Amino acid sequence: MHQSDLSKLSLFPLTKDIDSRGHLHIGGCDCVELTKKFGTPLYVFDEVTLRSKCQEFKTEFTKRYSNTLIIYASKAFLNRALAIIFKEEGLGLDVVSGGELSVAQSVDFPCEKVCFHGNNKTADELKLALDWGIGRIVVDNFDELELLNSLAHKTGAKQTILVRLNPGVDPHTHRHTTTGILDSKFGFPLATGQAETAVVKAMSATNLDLVGLHFHLGSPIPDTSSYQTAISLVLNFAKEMKAKCDFHLAELSPGGGFAVKYTVDSKTPGIADYAEAITAKVKSLATELDLTYPKLIIEPGRAIVAQAGVALYTVGSAKEIPGVRKYICVDGGMGDNIRPALYEARYEVLVANKVSDNEPTNVTIAGKYCESGDILARDVSMAPFSTGDIIAIPVNGAYSIPMSSNYNMIPRPAIAMVKDGKARLIRKRESYKDLMRLDSI
Ligand SMILES: *Cc1c(COP(=O)(O)O)cnc(C)c1O
C-alpha cells in the first residue's frame, strides 16, 4: 500500500511540524539545520514526547490502580541525560547490568526505585548493587539465589527480592524476543515445579526478603490478553504458595513489552488499553482469590522512548537494477540500527528536507556496512529524492542506539535532545580516535 510522506507524520514525535519549505521540524528545531550543525547520521530525541510518555504511563495506571510504580527498562536506551529525565518524572529504573546501574548511580538516581534484572548477573555486579542499597533484585535462577544470599550474608544486608517466573505463555512476538515460553533462558518455570521450589528456597534464605513475583513475556506484545493469561497463572500460583508456605504477594510485576506503532498500517493497543487489561485482571482475580491487592510494578522500555527518537541520514549513492529493485544508500545502517537485520523490523521513511504528498516511488533503503543484510527499510514508498537529501526514519528511540556497534570501524552517531527550538548534544559523535582509544600495540 502506498503511503504519502504526509501520512507518515503521525509516527513522528508529538512536536513534529513542517515548514513552508517542506522541512521537518521536531521540538521546534529544523531537522535540516540540525544535520548541518551536528552531521549525519544523527539521532534526535524530543524531550516533550519522552516526558509525555512517562506521564501517560503514570496516569493511565495509577488512575485505575493507585499502588503502581512505573519503572523504565533502561535497555531500550539509556544515557545520563535520559536517566535525569526519568528521575525528574518520578519513574523507577530497571537495569540489567553493572553498566546501566553505574549510569543510574552517576545521576544519583534514587536507589530504592532501581530494580536489577538479568539471567546471569555476575558476583561483581551483585556486589555493586548490594553496596549501593538497590531497591529490588529480581532473582532469575537457583545459582543466583544462592550466590546473592551468600553475598548479602557477607555484607550483613537483607536484600529485598522478587523471583522471576516463567509462566509458559506465548505472546506471539518474534522468536528472538519471546521470553515467557517454557523453553527460555529466563525465569523459574511454573510448569515444572521449579517456581515453587524457588519460592520455598527464597523464603528460607537468611539474607533475602522475598516480596513478590515477576514475569516478562517478551517484546513487543501485540495483544493485551497474553498479560491477562499470565496474570491469572501467576496469581493462582501466589494463592497456592500462600496456602502451602504462607507466602504473601506484596508486589507483582507483569514486566514490559508494550508495543508501539512503527508503520502507518500497524495496529497496536495504546497505553490505556494495556493499563485497563492488566489492572482489571489483577483487581478481579485478587478479589476472587482473596489476596490483598499487590503493588504493581510496570516496566515499559520501548513504549517510553520509541516515538521520541528519529534517525536522520544523508542520501549517498543509488543503484537501480532494472526490473528488480532500486537501492538508495545512506551514511548509516546496521551499525546504528540492527533491528531490521536482526528481527526483520519494518520502518517508514520520509524525505526530511522536502516533505510532500507527491506521487511516491518504491525504493529500498540500504546502509553502508559490508553485509547484504544491511537494509534499513525494504520496499518502502517515498516521494522522489536524490543524493544529498536528508531522510528521516521515525520511531527510532528504542533498541537502535543501545545495540549499535563499530562494525567496519564506523564511529557511532551523535545524539541530540531537542526542546522549544533548542538542541543540545546528549552524546557526541564518536571520532576515529575514539575507535582506537582502548587499543595498544
Ligand atoms: C526488555 C524488558 C523490559 C522492557 O521491554 P519493552 O518491550 O522495551 O517494554 C521490561 N522488563 C524486562 C524484564 C525486560 O527484559
Walk me through this protein's architecture.
The protein has helices spanning 31-38, 47-62, 80-88, 98-106, 123-132, 142-155, 194-204, 225-245, 271-288, 302-305, 339-343, 432-436; strands spanning 17-18, 24-26, 29-30, 42-46, 68-73, 92-95, 114-116, 136-139, 159-166, 188-189, 208-214, 251-255, 295-298, 309-321, 325-330, 350-351, 361-366, 375-382, 390-393, 414-419, 422-427. With 441 residues, the protein is α/β, with parallel strands linked by helices. The chain has two domains: 3-39 and 308-436, Lyase, Ornithine Decarboxylase, Chain A, domain 1 (Beta Barrel), CATH 2.40.37.10; 48-303, Alanine racemase (TIM Barrel, Alpha-Beta Barrel). Strands 4, 14, 15, 16, 17, 18, 19, 20 and 21 form a nine-stranded mixed β-sheet that branches. It has an eight-stranded parallel β-barrel with strand order 5-6-7-8-9-11-12-13, surrounded by six helices. α2 runs parallel beside α9 (271-288), α5 (123-132) packs across α6 (142-155) and α8 (225-245) runs parallel beside α9. The longest helix has 21 residues, at 225-245. The termini are far apart. The model has no long low-confidence stretch (mean pLDDT 95). Bound molecules: pyridoxal-5'-phosphate. Residues 73, 75-76, 94, 117, 216, 219-220, 255-258, 299-303 line the site of pyridoxal-5'-phosphate.
